[in-house]
Amino acid sequence: MKKNNNGGQVAANTSTEAAAGAGAPSEGKTGVIFAYGSAFKADWPEPVKVMMEKIGTLGANHPRDQVDKDIVNEYAERMKDGAEFPPVVIFRDRDGLEWVADGCHRYEAAKMCGLADIKAVVVEGGERDAILFAVGANAEHGMRRTVADKRKAVTVLVQDKEWRGRGVNWIAQQCKVSWDLAKSVCAEYERAHPEETEDGKDKAKKCKRNGKEYLQKSAVSKPLPAHIVAIGEMRELACKARAVVPEGDAKLAESLDRVGSELHEILGKATGAKCRMAEGLQVPLNVYQHKLVGGISATPEFERKGLATHAVNVGLGCGHQCSYCSSPSLRCRLPAYGELQINPYGSGFAVIDPKSADRISKDKPKLTADNTVMLSTCDDAWSPEARKYGVGRKCMEVLLKETTARVRVLTKSSEVKDDLDVAKGSEGRVMVGLSTGIPCSREDVAKAVEPNASSIKDRLQALKQAKDQGFGTYAMLCPCLPLVADTEAALTVMFKSVNDCGVSDIWLEPVNARGMALKNTAMALRLAGLKAEADAVDAIRKEEVWSKYAAALAETAVKVAEAMGLADKLHILLYADKITDPDRERVKALGDTVILLGKDTAKAKDGGNSEAGDEGGETADGGKPDGNGADENAA
Prior knowledge:
The protein is α/β, with parallel strands linked by helices.
């Protein structure tokens, strides 16, 4: 190994670069410098020889901070010796213009050798397509990217108005860097170019809630300090390493678990967490306190779902640590995260407003018996940190005493049963739901993807107990993961389990594809040794595969419900804009059982003749980022 001249990062040399590729190097007289990496796709055309004089580079838009001359010289020497290199990746547009998107060091080495042509995989696409491919091309193969390279890749996208507008999460995914790093670079660019970012000021618009007028901000939260970003990245790397530890190497796995835990504790202390909760929790929590603004808010999205007209939320990050939670993708721009110095896409933290009950008491609209307030839509009022402060109990007490509305509780904690005494005498106004989207026989899956939630068995027992005490009950089977909860056998078991608890309704939903939900869930399953289940989740990260999975889940659920005589109780929630046209036809054939949501709701219903529909939006303070159903219980 040798050090390059770019930030001291270690670069792979010719004898070790084979290990950087995903495939095994082929045998040959002179050997192969490195194998095909993950950047190459199986459905791409076979490599061909391309004339060097026709190829252009991305210039200033290339994501490498600088070309490593030592590596170019080394590659050139090997090329002269006849070594076989893998093909570069070239994008060619309709006019025949070509750009190198992957393999800049090989390209420069070929130029140095005076080669007339170079082996290349030629892909259809223009310069912008080449740039989007290039920014993430060397994340997992080839010469290791330096921190400067990663920052350059983010900068390339941030300086483009269209790509900048897609948000930090999208940029981080394209560049295959951490959210913290992408966030930091984006914030630096905004400060340096105020003329391109709304004059550097927070943009705000007036909005009304409960008859009062507020300024709803859309400003990006301030960047995280460099040392916080670094600690977070080290913890993320430890987690990634733990996920791929060879089976049987328990000592290494234990060491990486310990490193991750120590970094988590360091992070909590460095960011001023109020406390650390570890006892009885599979995933320890750094707990932060944050005062939310606003109390009971209208929730059009949950009204469309048939669940509630209003909502109360108690924090900005739930301690149940569900891997599939999509709330961060809606709340990531809230200033509170910058103030607390935490990454909204991170794990091992919870944000709670201990005085939520006082807040909703002071800010509540005129509610009637026809209204239903959901507790909660974007977090869980009985999560570990919420129970520590008695938040769920206090909020339910305020709602029952100070309003005439119905209250719909939704939680993953069986501990809710201990607080139902505050609703004694008001049983007819309270509906209790415990989210159970996994069959009892798969507690191993539940433990992996909902690590700090109650067991499925305990949740069902709590649901039955609530029914026995005279409360209305309902089921939330969400999310129904592929290979775990989308088969006839699994759905039959789950339907029977909740029906035995006396539920009046059954809501069901596929796993949400928004944000980091699928990636995090696959990682959690892999860490638990559930490879087949992880692979099934990874497969639906492709939009068309997710669409087929969601449509098939809906069809199977309807079939099972009809066979069990539960069709009248079933409500399936689907986002129309995530479903392909052919699968929409399948979904439409299921009738009113399916509730279509999102931007393309009307389009899906009428066959594509309308653009109506709305996904909701964020509040200025994060009290309730309503819309999209982005919550841990009913996402």
